[in-house]
Specification:
seven-stranded mixed sheet, single chain, 129 residues
C-alpha cells in the first residue's frame, strides 16, 4: 500500500508560480510510475504530467513549457513546478502512482485516471486573473 501526501497548493495571480510536493510512504524508485493529475469542479480528472524512473517525462499539451515534473528518490518525493499560471489551471491537483510494469507502461503517455493505482488526497490550486 502506497500513501501519497501532497502539499504546496495555494492562491496566486495569473502569471505566478507554485511548487507542489508529494511525499510517498514507500520508495517508489523502480516500483512505480508517478504523475500529477488535476480536477476542476464539474470536470473529469485529467493527467498533467508523468515521470518514469529514468526521469523521462510526459506532459499534457495544455501545460507543456509551463509545468515541470521531477522526483527526488532519496526523499521519496515527487514535485510539480507550475509556472506562468493561468486561471484555467485552477483545480485540485492529485499525486498519482501506478505499478511499474510493461503492461502499465502506457499510463505514462495516456495518463489514464482509470489505470492509476494510488492517489493522494489532493491540494488546491487557485489562479485569479
Amino acid at each position: 500500500q502506497v500513501q501519497l501526501v501532497e502539499s504546496g497548493g495555494g492562491s496566486v495571480q495569473a502569471g505566478g508560480s507554485l511548487r507542489l510536493s508529494c511525499v510517498s510512504s514507500v520508495s517508489t524508485y523502480n516500483n512505480y510510475y508517478l504523475g500529477w493529475f488535476r480536477q476542476a469542479p464539474g470536470k473529469e480528472r485529467e493527467g498533467v504530467a508523468t515521470i518514469d524512473s529514468d526521469d523521462s517525462t510526459n506532459y499534457a499539451d495544455s501545460v507543456k513549457g509551463r509545468f515541470a515534473i521531477s522526483r527526488d528518490n532519496a526523499k521519496n518525493t515527487l514535485y510539480l513546478q507550475l509556472n506562468s499560471l493561468k486561471p484555467e489551471d485552477s483545480a485540485t491537483y492529485y499525486c498519482a502512482a501506478t505499478w511499474r510494469t510493461l503492461r502499465r507502461r502506457a499510463w505514462l503517455t495516456t495518463m489514464s485516471a482509470r489505470m492509476t493505482d494510488y492517489w493522494g488526497q489532493g491540494t488546491q490550486v487557485t489562479v485569479s486573473s
